[in-house]
Design brief:
- With 361 residues, this protein is an all-alpha fold.
- The chain has one domain (10-352).
- 82% of the residues lie in helices and 0% in strands.
- InterPro entries: DUF475.
- Keywords: Membrane, Transmembrane, Transmembrane helix.
């Protein structure tokens, strides 16, 4: 699973994703047969794995674009490391270890006991995971909100999709800490809508999400600066790698929790979301190799707007339940509109170029 060195056909980029899909769906069908002993049960688990994969892909369009934005500035060595080690961490770390870790902390039991609980008492396991949704949503929502706001609050940003909003944000970016102040205000607003212990949990978790973002930024900058002095080949490597791993974790929170609405079996969830993660990896490689972000100038904007929408939805989920399908479709719609706007811009530029050429003749 190495990063390709040159552009290839679109199907070629998804070769590993197709292989993992076939293996994962067969494994899901086998689990269904082993657990129920019926064709119907096997088909049900097969279908759930497929739906979870689609859910993960729909929730992660923006993740792939943001990953590609960061990866394009990394050396081939670090690109390869992220696309190999990173996918292992994404699939096994976030889809298996992370849910187990939550249960270990919440139920105050050992890792082995958590695995046994997931296998023998999936209902209890799901209950513990759902109870942990509030702090997870507060932490992940805050981190993603900082990611989105930092992109728009940039005084050097000169390409604007929704100019009325983005030009103002770029102008106010000269005020130090404006995005942090904005997030802190939102934290206070949402905490006031909650009561008692829930409000305290939301505030503490959100602050931890904010501090994590700032820590990743500081540590990443320090690591990359030190690596630049030691080796030019390591430039932009480890710090960006850490940033992308934490970002992927934040994107995964919503999908992991939402998966329990379809099944309470941890292993089925891991298969379905793991398949989806492989497609995100393949999309990331294709975007980097084909230079899609440069070709479609507003695509990146759509992804970061989708991130902001997702962060707000995660905040709102601490108050009311919002189906994951809305989250996925909302992000996909924003990216689709930004792609359409980019195509329109490119056509306009080509038309103007032809007119200019005719005038010169």
């Amino acid at each position: 699973m190495t990063a390709p060195s040159r552009p290839q056909s679109a199907i070629g980029y998804f070769k590993w994703a197709f292989i993992v899909t076939a293996f994962g769906l067969l494994l899901g069908a086998w689990l269904g047969w082993q657990s129920t002993g019926t064709i119907g049960g096997m088909a049900t688990v097969f279908f759930i794995c497929a739906v979870l994969a689609v859910l993960e892909i729909s929730l992660s369009f923006d993740n792939a674009i943001v990953n590609a934005n960061k990866l394009k500035d990394m050396t081939p060595v670090w690109q390869h490391r992220f696309l190999t080690w990173g996918i292992v961490i994404a699939v096994f770390g976030m889809r298996i270890v992370f849910p187990l870790l939550i249960v270990v902390i919440a139920a105050k039991i050992g890792p082995i006991e958590a695995i046994v609980l997931a296998a023998r008492e999936p209902g209890e396991y799901a209950r513990i995971m759902n109870e942990a949704h509030l702090p997870i949503a507060a932490f992940g929502g805050t981190f993603l909100m900082m990611v989105g706001l930092t992109y728009f609050f940039d005084h050097e940003k000169d390409v604007h999709w929704i100019a009325a909003i983005e030009k103002r944000m770029a102008r106010y970016a000269t005020i130090k800490g404006v995005e942090i102040a904005f997030v802190l205000i939102l934290i206070l607003v949402f905490s006031n809508l909650l009561e008692g212990e829930a409000a305290d949990t939301f505030v503490y978790s959100a602050i931890y999400g904010l501090l994590t973002f700032l820590a990743v930024e500081v540590v990443g900058g320090m690591l990359d600066a030190s690596q630049q002095t030691m080796s030019a080949a390591a430039k932009g490597g480890l710090g960006a790698f850490i940033y992308l791993e934490v970002l992927d974790a934040s994107f995964s929170f919503d999908g992991v929790i939402g998966a329990f609405a379809l099944t309470q079996n941890l292993f089925i969830i891991a298969i379905g979301l793991g398949i989806g993660a492989m497609y995100v990896r393949s999309m990331t490689i294709m975007l980097v190799d084909k230079g899609t972000l440069a070709e479609y100038r507003y695509l990146e904007h759509g992804a970061f707007y989708a991130i902001l929408i997702l962060s707000v939805i995660m905040y709102c989920q601490t108050l009311v339940h919002i189906p994951e399908v809305i989250t996925g479709l909302g992000g996909a719609a924003l990216i689709g509109i930004s792609l359409w706007s980019s195509i329109r811009y490119n056509r306009k530029e080509k038309a103007e170029g032809r007119e200019q050429a005719v005038e010169n003749v």
